[in-house]
Specification:
CATH class of the largest domain: Alpha Beta
CATH architecture of the largest domain: Alpha-Beta Complex
CATH superfamily of the largest domain: Naphthalene 1,2-dioxygenase Alpha Subunit, Chain A, domain 1
Helix content: 25-40%
Radius of gyration: 23 Å
Bound molecules: FE2/S2 (inorganic) cluster, fe (iii) ion
Largest sheet: 8 strands, antiparallel
Shape: globular
CATH topology of the largest domain: Naphthalene 1,2-dioxygenase Alpha Subunit, Chain A, domain 1
Number of helices: 14
Number of strands: 23
Strand content: 15-25%
Number of domains: 2
Length: about 450
């Protein structure tokens, strides 16, 4: 394959100008393997919240794509990302979700690593190896770079990646909707579960699908899951009426979708709305973001953030048809125990493994993934053309360029457009050179 053809290899599956995306990218094993290499081994990926590893020796076990990684704070105060695979036979050296450790000792033959990943102990080093082992070169493989944004810790395997700041770009304006609400810390405990379905359907839903809520979650709402009268909840999420809100597309495939609260919709008595009464927070957020009622966002590739419920969910790929979700709930450091419990309970009822909305969504992603494999329909692309050609970028107050519209499919198309850019680029320098900014993308997509 020549160089130009190889640069277009994945572009053929995404047609933003027609609002179409091939079913193949949701089930093909070869494409999935390429995603692990070109997206998950390259992008900055969310690892954990800093409050999960506050002290020397603290660690959490996380994933970067399919790679098991120990995120650990060393005695020097720095965070290190260590691939959880012993350099002897590849066994895992850490088998728990979190804790505090001085070292990680492999359960197979006992090699020991410190919290920087250096190999510090080899049983039989003198007696069996005759001191002929190059210990300094046998440390755990490290994540190339670790950085954080307002408490969210990210890592990348690619030393050529741009700074985290550049990678997130205008998405920081969106993330601040949550991160500026107060002094937030991760609630204790680890919640994770599996969902059958391709990880991109979850990302595509997170980035701004406000079309689905009243259909997908109708039963849960009628059952009173959102409280009060189910019919009122349904009316609020009415799928076929225009609602006021915004859609933000940010560099490298991130996106957000938020609606504005009408004065009578905000329950100022709820502990989760306390930030609306805090003038410091209001000043930080500014007049536009202060009006936001709820927002869903996806930090490319796989971090879902909900600023209303303060949930962070990473959808780790586990093959083309499966994902493992890890959820973190952020709570206010100064909130009462009762408020924290209320928030965690409500999050788990909504998004957890037994969450009513999560069950609804997961079932759809499972069936969509099955549908993508259809022999009879495989050449019929999926339709992402709602309001295609009708978007205009504008700035509201201090906002970056965004679309003043809530229900549309622009952010989803943007996700797949950027997906193809990641997949077709051979390296970060190539990706940066080829990357279309949202302003340029819309120049193409709207004419
Ligand atoms: Fe870890 Fe042998 S595999 S010590
Ligand atoms: Fe949903």
């Amino acid at each position: 394959m020549d160089a130009i053809a190889s640069r277009e290899k994945y572009r053929q599956y995404v047609k933003p100008e027609a609002g179409l995306v091939s079913r193949r990218i949701f089930h093909d094993e070869e494409i999935y393997r390429a995603e692990l290499d070109r997206i998950f081994k390259r992008a900055w990926l969310y690892l954990a919240h800093e409050s999960e590893v506050p002290d020397p020796g603290d660690f959490v076990h996380v994933y970067m794509g399919e790679e098991p990684v120990i995120l650990c704070r060393d005695r020097d105060g720095q965070l290190y990302g260590l691939v959880n695979s012993c350099r002897h036979r590849g066994n895992r050296v850490c088998r728990v979700d979190r804790g505090n450790a001085r070292s990680f000792v492999c359960s197979y033959h006992g090699w020991a690593y410190n919290t920087k990943g250096n190999l510090i102990g080899v049983p039989g080093k003198t007696e069996l190896y005759k001191d002929d082992i190059d210990q300094p070169s046998l440390g755990l493989v490290r994540v190339a770079r670790i950085d954080s944004y307002k408490g969210l810790v990210f890592g990348t395997f690619d030393p050529e990646a741009p700074s985290l700041e550049e990678f997130l770009g205008d998405m920081r304006w969106g993330l601040d909707l949550l991160l500026d609400q107060g002094d937030l810390v991760a609630a204790p405990g680890v919640v994770r579960w599996n969902i059958e379905g391709n990880w991109k359907f979850a990302a595509d839903n997170a980035i701004g699908d406000m079309y689905h809520a009243a259909w997908t979650h109708r039963s849960a709402m009628l059952a009173g899951h959102l409280g009060g009268n189910g019919a009122q909840s349904l009316a609020q999420y009415a799928p076929t009426r225009e609602q006021k809100g915004i859609t933000l597309l940010a560099a490298y495939g991130h996106g957000l979708n938020a609606d504005f609260a009408e004065a009578d919709e905000v329950d100022l008595g709820s502990p989760l709305a306390a930030w609306r009464l805090d003038p410091t927070v209001q000043a930080r957020l500014g007049p536009v973001r202060s009006r936001v009622q709820r927002s869903n966002m996806n930090v490319f590739p796989n971090l879902f953030v909900n600023s209303g419920s303060r949930d962070l969910m990473v959808r780790h790929p586990r093959g083309p048809g499966r994902m493992e979700v890890r959820k973190t709930v952020l709570v206010d450091r100064n909130a009462s125990e009762e408020t924290r419990r209320m928030q965690i309970r409500s999050s788990n009822r909504h998004f957890g493994p037994a969450g009513m909305f999560e069950q609804d969504d997961g079932e759809n992603w499972d069936q969509s993934t099955h549908g993508a494999r259809s022999l009879a329909a495989r050449d019929r692309d999926l339709h992402y053309a709602m309001k295609l050609g009708r978007a205009r970028l504008t700035r509201l107050g201090d906002s970056p360029p965004l679309i003043e519209d809530l229900v549309n499919e622009h952010a989803q198309l943007w996700l797949y457009h950027c997906w193809a850019e990641f997949m077709d680029a051979a390296s970060w320098p190539e990706l940066r050179a080829a990357h279309t900014q949202p302003t340029d993308y819309f120049r193409c997509a709207t004419t």
